[in-house]
C-alpha cells in the first residue's frame, strides 16, 4: 500500500474529484439541514458519547449480558478473536446448512474480515445486495465510501457494467438501472440459503440487534433465507433498549441527512412459532479483531465509539479530494486513518495517521464527538516511537527536532541565530512544506527588538 | 469449542486492557479500579425525558396531522377514513387505482375482514400456502401497523401481532392499516410502546424503499415497495 502514490493518482482523476465534490458537498448540506431540526443536537451528541463511554468501560459485562439475552431468545452467539476465526465460523455455518448462495446486506465488518474472498475460496458464492455494493462487486472493485460505496462511478460506467454483466439494454436512466439490479437480485434472493448482515447497534438489556437501511435489502437478507448470520464488532453493544432513541436521532442525520432511514429492523432471537416468518436459525458473530486492544488508553478507546455514519469523510478536506480508495483500507477517511492502523497494526498502515491536515473538521461533525485529531497525533507518536521511519530522512528529522528544542530552550542562542538569519536573508529549509507554500520573509526588526525599544513605533508601521 | 476459547480470550483481553495503568500491581486502587462495573442498568440517564421536555406535549389532533405531514414528506400516500365500511371502500379504490391484480393480505383479522368482499375483483393469494415465487408475483401486500410515529412519519410492525414482515416488503405496493389512536408523538414514545419481548422482528418503516447509490439520484422501490399507502382509521 502506498498512500502517497494512490493519493496522487486520485488527484489526477478529474471525474473522480468532480463526483466526490458533488457527493460530499451535498451530504454536508443535507446533514446541516437535518441537524437544525433537532432541538438539542449538542446534548444528543453528549448523551450518545456518555452512553458509549460507559459501555466501553464495562464492555466485558455488557457483552456477556447481550450474549446471554440473545441466546435466551434463540440466537446462537459465536465469538471470533480475529478475521480468520470469523470467516471460519461463517463459512462453517454455511457448509453445515448446505448453502451455495449467500446474500449479503451492507456490512463494513464483513469487508474488514474479507468474508467474500473466504466464502468464494470455499466454493460459496457471496452476493452483495445493497445497490452500491452490488455495483462495486460486479466491477470487481472495493467500496470507496462508507455510506455510498459506488460514489466513484458514473451512471455511464454503471450502464456499461450492467450491459456487460446483466445483459441489459444500455441506459442512462438511473431508475432503469436500479430496476435491472432489483430484478437480478430478486433471483439471487429466491435461491439464497443464507443471509449475512452487519449490525448497527446491539442492545445488552434485550439481546436485540438493530439494522438501519434505505433499500430493503437488509430486510430481505434477514427474513427470506433459512439462516441469518449477523456479524458485529464487539463495540456495537449499547446498554438499554431506550438508548436506541438518541442513536437513531444521530446516525441517519449524520450519515445521509435523513431524519430516519426508510427501515430499521429490530431482531431479537429466532421466530417463536414454526409458522412465523423469518429464518429458522439466527447466528450472531462477535468480532474482536484488534478492538479489545484499543480499550487500553482513553485516547484510542474513543475510536470504538464510532457509529460508522461517514460524516467525517464528507467533512474532511483530504477525503474530499482523494476519495476512499487512496486510503488503501476498508475504512477510509479520517475515521479510517485512525481505525485501520489500530485494527491491522502499524506495520500495514503507518502512513495513514499522516493523511490529515489536523484541521479538526472531522471532530466537529462527529455525532459521538470522537477527537480524531488527538487519536491521529497519538498514532503518529507511536509510528515514530516504533521507529517505523528509518534511514537518512528520519535521522535528519530527529536531528532537526533536537536542534530546534535546544535552540528554543536557550533565549540568547535563539536571539543570535535569528539575528544571523535576518542579516543573511535565510529562510529555514522546511522541505515539502515550502514546496507548495511561500514563507513570509522575516521582518527587518524582530518583535523582541521592538519590545526592548519600548514600542516607540506604536501607531505607525 | 473454539468459540468458547475465543469467548474467554476476548473477555479476558477486554478486562486486561481496561485495567487502570501506572499503578503498582497489588495496590488497592489497582484491583478495584474502573474495570469493576456498577450494575448494568446504571449509567447515563435515558435521553427520552429531556427530548420531550424540549418540545412540549402536543394535542391528539396535532399529533395525527404532524404524522400525515411527515408521511407526505417521506413520499408515502395517506388516506384518512372513519370506520371499517369506509376503509373497505378506500382499500378497493387504492387497489384498483394501482392496477393491482394479485393481492396478498396478512392474517390480521381487520385485513381479512376488509379484503373478503374484494375477492371477486382481485386475485387473492393465500397466505398459508404462499411460496416464495407466489409472493414475488403479488402486486400488493396489505397489513396493519401496530404504531405510528408522528415525529418521523414512521410505521411500526411487530412480528408477534401478524405475519407482515414479507408482505410489507416484497410486493411493489404496501398498504398499511393504522388506527389514529396508535400514533405516538416521538421516536422515544414509539420505542417505549413496542412490545419488544414478544416479537422476534420489529420493523420501522418510513416511506418507500429508496436508494441514492447511483450518482446520488433518488430512486424509490429498489428492493422494497415503490409505494407505501397508509389507510388511517379514525375512531368512530
Structure description:
- The complex is a heterodimer of chains A (461) and B (236).
- Chain A is an alpha/beta fold.
- Chain A folds into three domains: 1-37 and 300-389, Fumarate Reductase Iron-sulfur Protein, Chain B, domain 2, CATH 1.10.1060; 58-289, Rossmann fold, CATH 3.40.50; 401-455, no CATH class.
- Chain A is 52% helix and 10% strand.
- In chain A, strand 5 (201-203) and strand 6 (208-213) form a beta hairpin.
- In chain A, helix 3 packs across helix 12, helix 9 packs across helix 10 and helix 17 runs parallel beside helix 20.
- Chain A starts with a helix and ends in a 9-residue tail after the last helix.
- The mean pLDDT of chain A is 92.
- By secondary structure, chain B is of the alpha/beta class.
- Chain B has a single domain (51-234), classed as 3-Layer(aba) Sandwich (Rossmann fold), CATH 3.40.50.
- Chain B has eight helices and twelve strands.
- In chain B, the strands form three sheets. Chain B has a six-stranded parallel sheet with strand order 1-12-7-4-2-3, sandwiched between helices. In chain B, strands 8-5-6-9 form a four-stranded mixed sheet. Chain B has a two-stranded antiparallel sheet with strand order 10-11.
- In chain B, strand 2, helix 6 (109-115) and strand 3 (123-125) form a beta-alpha-beta unit.
- Chain B is globular, with a radius of gyration of 24 Å.
- Residues 23-56 of chain B have low confidence and may be disordered.
- The interface between A and B is large, with 102 and 77 residues.
The residue-averaged pLDDT of chain A reads 92
Strand content of chain A: 5-15%
Instruction: Please tally the helical runs of chain B, counting DSSP H or I stretches of 4 or more residues.
Output: 8
> Which class of secondary structure composition applies to the elements of chain B?
alpha/beta
CATH class of chain B: Alpha Beta
Low-confidence stretches of chain B: 23-56
Q: What would you call the structural class of chain A?
A: alpha/beta
Mean pLDDT of chain B: 86
Level of helix content of chain A? Answer: 40-55%
Count of DSSP strands of chain A:
10
Q: Write down the overall geometry of chain B.
A: globular
Q: Which two chains have the most extensive interface, and how many residues on each?
A: A-B, 102 and 77 residues
Instruction: Tell me the CATH architecture of the largest domain in chain A.
Output: 3-Layer(aba) Sandwich
CATH architecture of chain B: 3-Layer(aba) Sandwich
Strand order of the largest sheet of chain B: 1-12-7-4-2-3
Instruction: Characterize the largest beta sheet of chain A: strand count, sense, and whether it forms a barrel.
Output: 6 strands, parallel
